[in-house]
Amino acid sequence: MSGHSLRLRLMPESFAICRLEPQAPVPAWLPRKGFTAVIRTAAELSIYSAEEAVPSEVQAARGWRAFELAGPFAFTETGIIASVVAPLAEAGISVSVVATYDTDYVFVSQSALEGAVAVLTAAGHHILGRE
Question: Residue 2: inside a domain, yes or no?
Fold first, then answer.
């Protein structure tokens, strides 16, 4: 364990992680506010978006919840993501991670959320935004 004790904010919305063809334009249905991530590679256009905004015909893994790591974190800090994903991996909880300039977001499936909260709390992290 890296020794990091972080504040993680559980975001209230449910997310979809979408896959479009690599040459697809950024879709007009993307929300203009809130968390959205658009990542283009040579193989795909991936989009993280509020699930309610994603049309049913779009290829997507739906029902994901996100923990926002309370940042910002300097680019020189090490072990931040590892301190969150390592205990989840040890517990067999699958994750998807998105990093921004200031912070990181760790996504877990809705079905694994309660287990993830328990694992992260046991690892010394503080979960904010639990109803």
Answer: no
Residue 64 lies in a domain: yes
Q: Domain tally for the chain?
A: 1
CA count, 13 A, side-chain hemisphere, 20:
17
Q: Is the pTM higher than 0.90?
A: yes
Work out the number of other CB atoms within 10 angstroms of the CB of residue 126.
Answer: 12
Q: Domain containing 11: what range?
A: 7-128
* Cα–Cα dist 10/117, whole Å: 9
Neighbouring C-alpha atoms within 13 Å toward the C-beta of 107: 22
Tell me the average confidence (pLDDT) per consecutive run of 10 residues in the chain, 131 residues long: 80 97 96 94 97 97 96 84 96 96 95 97 91 54
